[in-house]
Structure formats: C-alpha cells, structure tokens
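Input:
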Amino acid sequence: MTFRVRIAPSPTGNLHIGTARTAVFNWLFARHHNGKFILRIEDTDTERSRAEYTDNILEGLRWLGLNWDEGPFFQTQRLDMYKQGVQSLLDKGLAYRCYTTSEELEALREAQKARNEAPRYDNRHRNLTPEQEAEFKAEGRSFVIRFKIDDSREIVWKDLVRGEMNWRGSDLGGDMVIARATEDGIGQPLYNFAVVVDDMDMQITHVIRGEDHIANTAKQILLYEAFSAKVPEFAHTPLILNMEGRKLSKRDGVTSISDFQKMGFTPEGLVNYMTLLGWSPPDSTQEIFTLEEAAKNFDFERVNKAGAKFDWAKLDWINSQYIHSMPVDKLTDMLIPFWEEAGYKFTETKERAWIEQLVALIQPGISRLTESKDIVKMFSTETVKFSSEAKEQLEKEGVKSALQGVVAALDNQQISEINANNAKDIVKQVVKEQNVKKGLLMRSLRAALTGEMNGPDLIESWVLLNHISLDKLRLLHAIDAPILSQANPQ
Ligand code: GLU
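Output:
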C-alpha cells in the first residue's frame, strides 16, 4: 500500500512555523515510506482567506524544500462534493436541519453556564416533524445541518504519537454542525466535514497534524463511520512552546516562515532545526542533517508527546553551521539581497571576485545572514561612523600619533595597494618607530578603519578596503575629523 499524507493549511495568515513543522513531519514520513505528500488549501472560510496568504504558504513550503507530489487542491473548488456528502448523510438520516436561532443558542449557553455545565447543543431539533420544520421555515428561520452524535459512543484510536486515545460522544458538545445553509439549500461546509470528505477522496492513509486537533479527530472518526469509509491512522504532533513552556505566539517574536527568512535564517538551517522540534534521530548526538538524511530515519516512535521548546540559541547554532560550510559563491548570492535591502549596492561598483573575498571574510563570524549587514557597512562608505567604544579607543594616549605614523608610512613608501605583506610590515615598522604596543596599534587601526572594536580579521579587512586613499582618508578622519573636509578622497 502506498502511504498518502497531506498538509492542509488554511490561507488565513502567512505560513506559520507550527504548520510548517507539521509539513516537515508529513514530508519526512512520506519520503521515508516512498509515499505521497499532498498539499490542500483549506480556503472555505472566504471571509478570512486571502490569495496572498496562499502565495506565502506555497512560497514558504518551496523555500524550505518541502516539495509536494499532488496539489495544491483548493477546497473552494470542491464545494459540489461536500454538498453531495451532506446530502447523503441527510438521506441516511444521520444528519438533519437545525433551525435553532443564535438567540436561542445563546440562552442555552447562559443557562448551562449558570448550572456550571460545559456548553453543548442539546440536540433539540434532532427529531422535528415535517410540520414543525414547515413552521420554522414559515417563520423565515435559516438552518444549519447537524450530524448526530451519540452521547454514549466510545471513540477509541491508537495514535501513532500518543498511544491509545479514548473519547466519549458526550465530550463532543452535542450534534455537530457540518454545513451552513444558503437560500436554496446546503451551503458552506464546516472544517471537520470538508476535511473528512477530502481525506476520503484523496485516500489519505495517515493524518499527521498538531495536537490541537485531537478533539476534531474524535468527531471526524464518527464521520468516517457514517460514510462507511476506512478510518486513517492518526499522529498528533506536539505543540511548539517558548522557553517558558507556553505555546509559542506572536509575542515571542515568531510567526511565519517568511519572518524567519527576513531574520536571516537559511532554509537548510531552519528546516534542519524544525526537524528536531519534537523528533530526535536514532543517534541523538547528530544535529546537522539534510531533510533526505532525516527521512531515512524518521518514524513516530521517536516523536515526543511533550511540547517542543523553541530554542533560539540552538537555531542560531544550527544556522551558523550551514552558513560556515556553504560554498562562498552560494553564500554571496544569499547575502546580496540582504545588503541591497540595507542600501549597500556593491554589485554596481565592485567586481564579483571582490564581493566573494568580502563574503569569505565575513563567513566565519556570522550565524544569521542579516548579521553581515553590520560588517559590510564598513566596506561600503568612504568614511566610517565610530561606535562609542571606537571613539574611546581613538582618544587613548599615543593613538593619534601612532595612526599618523601609519599614514606617513603609506605616503613614504608610496604604496599603491595594500596587501597582507606590506600591511604587516607597516604595523611592524610603526610599532618600532613609535614605540607603541602592537595590540594598541591593531585595536586603534581597527577602530579607525572600521569604526568598530570587533569584526573580521583586521589585516584581511584592510586589504579588502583596498583603496589606499580611502584607507588614508579613514585614518585621517580618525585622527582629526576636520582634516577630512580638506582631504581629497581620490
Ligand atoms: N486547515 C487545518 C489547519 O490549518 C487543517 C488541519 C488538519 O490537518 O486537518 O489547522
């Protein structure tokens, strides 16, 4: 038998990290078993669904490398099938029209609340006579279609993550609404109903989704039975929690995959981390692997029941591993859009080889692509803005004369281009001539050339700055800002 699984996002928002992680587990399971991974867009909520969210979801899944085999299918294009399904349950006497008004439902809820009872529909229209129905219609009431739920039913399934699950019909809130009505009959289907019709039609063998759907599963099993269909297997994956153990929310600064993308995570790093959110490989010390490698080992035995804590430090570490080992050419392509967005347009002024040298210099020191922006800033303008630490450094005793010594050495030796050798020679010479400590000179050079006290290798940075006149300008600027206004950068 070919295993068939699906991810079924609702396009009422951008692709959420929770949905994406569920997609990862579906993908891994499908690939492990050589099965099919199907994409279905659950867009029946026409008020909240938007085309741009659908685009964001498809782009996000593609970006993460979660390719699907069938779809995207759109529920709004399948309404006839749901109507037929509702009609067949009406015909079998398993569903009925309910005319209870929202005011009546509200009164019912109030009364239940006053008695300290959980809210539930009391099935009052389950057995209406044709006369009663006619009367409600004559009153102009609209209706919904409800599916009968037997309170005494026991619903049991063996969850692939959580083991045996037990629910009673009485836990499900009374007969459930499966569709709304339109003027001329059956209208919009509700989530639980449309999902079951689709999962039957798409021959889904395993429903893998978040544990917030457990109560829905109990209801959906009853619908499969009503259609005399085979009930699929279920796997309810753990929630993603913040470090305090609460459900991850917008307040934690994370929502959608496109946000993570903007924050500078690589798709490979992010998807690798998501794989570990609730699953561990058989060799639990292994933390870096591709989706394909994870798929080889994936099974639900190793998926935790407990919520998975979202650990930013670990995500950063994993992301850094991908950045550090990436070919420079590929990393360059990934970084340029971030720089351009920040206004650094190297591609217009510098050769690709120079840009790649810069990327190679930056590569070992960053764990997010965005962090490179702070570093490239110092390579993108003729003068630098000094951080307060850099200013402090430049004020230290002996610093200005040491830097003047560097400028003089550059002039005297008529160096047209700095390279690692002449840079080191100049440092040596100034240390000797000025009798300053090498550490002080290096820190001061860094402050003067980059405006910061930390950054990539100083000599390499200096070489990359390349234009002697530019370097000199920076040095002069560091020594005495007014000189700058008289200096000619070329
Ligand atoms: N549209 C539902 C959601 O986004 C799908 C749940 C399911 O997988 O059945 O939560």
